Records
---
Amino acid sequence: MTLRLDNVTKRYGTQLAVDHLSLEIPEQEMFGFLGGNGAGKTTTFRMILGLLDITEGDITWDGQKINYDKSHLIGYLPEERGLYPKLTVKDQIVYLSKLRGMNKQDALKELEDWLEQLKVPEYMNKKVEELSKGNQQKIQFISAVIHKPKLLILDEPFSGLDPVNVELLKKAVVNLKRQGTSIVFSSHRMEHVEELCEHLCILHKGSPVVKGSLRDIKRSFGKKNLIVHGDMELGFLESYPGVVKYKRVAAGCELQIENEDVSQKIFSELHGKGFVRKFELEEPSLNDIFIEKVGASYE
Amino acid sequence: MNKFWIIMSHTYMTKLKAKSFIISTAIAFLFIIGLVNFQSIIDIFSSDTTEKIAVIDESDALTETLSMSVEATNEDMEIVPFDGTEEDGKQAVQDEEFEALIVLSLNENQLPEATYYANNISDTSNQMFFEQQLQQIKVAIATQQSGIDAQAFAEINEPIAFDSVALDETAKTSEELNQARGIVYIMLFVLYMAVLSYGQMIMTDVANEKSSRVMEILVSSAPAITHMFAKIVGIALVGLTQIVSLILVAYFLIQSKQDEFIGGMFEYLGFGDISPSIYIYAIVFFLLGYLLYATLAAMLGSLVSRVEDAGQMMMPMIFLVMIAFFIAIFGLNAPTASFVTVTSFIPFFAPMIMFMRIGMLDVPLWEVGLSLGLLVGTIILLAVIGARVYKGGVLMYGRSSSLKDIKKALALSKREKS
């Protein structure tokens, strides 16, 4: 059940929101969508769900177009959170799960399990407006996953949650993946994507600037981070050939270098100059890649 | 279809359980109970004691006649001849011994004259009553004086025989017209209320789902058009529940007080023997009228992002309904006026005006058919546009709410296949 986006383009009038986006999202994987505000993430999700029509291109899942016949297989957590404020958690979830093809008994049973798992069993009969924003978000998350979807789309699932709840939700997401759900999620937070996703795509102004598996992306990025701490003058490294970025820190400096070989040259350069406390070669972080490719930080 | 049921029953149940619905229905019940018991309520507040009116008759000839004619027409009033002076009489009225004092005398032509004293003369009903009574007495005396005999006088006073007959064989007789007028009135009023209140309900409901942002989940699990029509039908059922329960309550109340009503209001409104076709027309035009305005309301509701803006969107709709209503009311007295005829074909006015014409006139079948056809066509057109606007509109969040938004919403949902 691979989700395939083939040259997908969306135009609002003359404004280009998504530009020839081609992606393949493998089954039972977690796929990360990165991108700043207005990069086209939500538009892409809405097109996948059929809420917006595609200007050009094709989106298929398991070779077929996604329509409302499949809505019981799909879960969606929109970026803009919203539930009926006046309804109780129970009524709300039962209604929404019925719309996803569940019956009432199953929905109630699952809801109980989920509330237990997210450590809020006492909210069953509370009205949504009485809950805090973070807890509303948990309820909304339940509404997206309660029917055990095969394809789950999470638009910014962790925003607005405290670290404890982020961990709770992350665990739930990983569990779902293990049970066979393909998950597509978007985030501004690089570390979440880095931690959870095998494949990812960085969108910038509607087109993918980076896509592929996390490992390949890092490898093909080429550049590495080098940390040097030592008791000597390191200023000369700023203009050293192969050094892309130089940042002075209290105990030494942090460098971005063009490739691994540069590190070895620097290593021999440092030899005999003084005491080296730390010399560490690191994979670039997704944050570095993002900043490099998109040109601005969104953190 | 299954999802249609889920959304519809959800809409129905939540609306039915809502406090606002329960309260408004309760108020309507109270209103009906009050209306049915109107007479009893009035009786409670009006005192049972007879009103005593003191009369000083300077001619000694009028009191008896007045007393007889007053007691024949109004049981609650008693004429008491007063023996004292005029001043004593006024004092007695001020002491509230009497309701009023009437001083009668004959003028130089031997015709009666009267002065009415009361503590205040703002309640004119008694004054008018005595003026009428005395007027009759005066006329009787005057005719006697001029030598006209009683029979000739009776003939003069008899009202003229005036009968209206329609020459066109299919035209309605005047009884039929009165009956039709009754049901047209009721239908116009019920449709007017239904469109306004349930249209508003639909609009705020859609706006509510939008502003609480639950809409995006809803439209991701069921098509927007299913959602829209499930909502319209669900709220129509809420309306029917309300109307039917009100009618049932009214029916049983009236049953229990049947004696008071026989020959009363019901005969006036003409529920005697109306041809059944008018009821069928009433139902058809009511349902189509509701559907038309409900679709419009859902479409407009999908354009606003906040409930507060819904009122603004409601205005054009209210104007349309009001124009239709007032033309129809005007048309009750002039159903053949040409602008009434013309407006009865305009879909937004047709449910009220065409129905009124059917009730009051013998409208050719093709005209009814044309009007219905236009109405149904408009509903379908509006449903198609509405569904598109709805699909785009529910994902659109902006400040302004105008015609431009309809265009924007349409563009958002437009299929641009290459």
---
Amino acid sequence: MDDLKLLRDLGAELEHEPPATLARQRHRLFTGRRRRRPGWWAAGLVAVATSVAVAVPVVLVGDRHDPDRTIVAEPVDVSGTRNVLVVGSDTREGEGNAQYGPGQARAGVGARSDTIMIVHLPADRRTATAVSVPRDSMVRIPRCGSSPPRVDMINSAYDNGGVACLRTTLEKLTGLRLDHTVEVDFTGFKDMVDALGGVTVTLPRPVDDRASKLRLPAGRSHLDGEQALGYVRLRHYGDGSDIARIKRQQTVVVAMVRQVKSALGEPVKLEELLKEVRESVRTDLSMESMYQLATELSGARLDVASVPWMPHPEDKNRIAWKQPDADKLFATLR
Amino acid sequence: MITQPAVRGADSELVSASWTDPEAFAELFDRYSAMLYRYVSKRLGPEQAEDLVGETFLIAFARRRSYDLAYADARPWLFGILTKLVSRHHRKEAARYRALLRAPVDSAVESPADRVAAGVTARAVRAELAGALAALPAKDRDVLLLIAWGDLTYEEVAQALGIPVGTVRSRLNRGRRKVRAALGDTNPMEEE
């Protein structure tokens, strides 16, 4: 047996068969990497992008309509204030013809689960507030593109008219100026975890999930992007509830924030991370502004909130904003 | 009557077709993505492989107009792009090999028959092989592994890396010499 043969055998041992997901990469060829679609839970990561400080509440708030979390109005400095619109969905792909809008392109792709939130960064940067907007809120959507004005669920503004339409809609509804937008998808999440060098989590019980091919022992584990993604998306684990899943997402995001905080002291590392983040999300924020925000917010306190809501009077499966509470909340963010 | 789209032959035809019909490029992906995936999974593990394969095709697609149609086979071109991408992960690659130095031989996952087929010798010297790979200079490792793991010929490696065939030979020889030295140069069936 010669050395090349030995090497080939070693190669055979190390080799992995391509997974079915490899086909996703084929798709990238024609959609382009910069046109990925946004994952609601991944919205937490967006926050890593916009600011370290906001990351945790964003996921905490994500997808829950919890009236008790409504923010207590407090005075906010106006100068230098920024409001960032954060959008996420768990749709993998399917951005198509802009003319028809992402909604049609994604039709049939599967359930979309948008997270919409407004991250408020006051001028003094001592606090940050993430206000989640329930996606099934019935609201008045102004004319955008070819869509006529109408009353509909707020996420339809995004699905039909993209982030621009959602921004206009929310600006009209809240009276806030939304200075920036950030969109993220779960590929972005994976990339960000990898950029952070993985995350360490402690598991109460081992994971052996066929669907995601994820196997982890109980106790502390260091997860790479793919594993972290598998972990937060597990469905048949623990009591299998959505709340349990949200908790796992929080765990991962908290671990990520810990990593980011350690990067804050090292400008080179932070810059590298933000570069990766910039690749993974779609945003109009420049690298420099993200860098600036991240450093400014390193000591910020976090508030989380939901737009005050109540069941819609005509359809209990929909949500209506509770007034004047909602307006009062937005007033504090101006 | 032709109802099927014409079956395209050589890779170069696909590339030139993609100049006017970008979708034609997808056929190249279907032909080679699995092969590239296996190759990179050996060097960097499955975590990175999928993304690097995707990246390789994205870059190839962007550069499809500069493809030299004189080469019918696109594999060297694709391997060349992939090699550059892999080189960004050299530290990770070396760490992967070094991990093999420590890892116990995992025989539980394979039947005895598999082990016999793969050759017990390869397993027995795994640590030495891995150590040698980890220690090789990147350029020598690229050549050695394109031949051993990528199944390219000397000419194809030369084309992939944009170097003369003579350089391929010298790098290969140097790489193999180091591997043999790590193995203690005791192998009676050694060639050359």
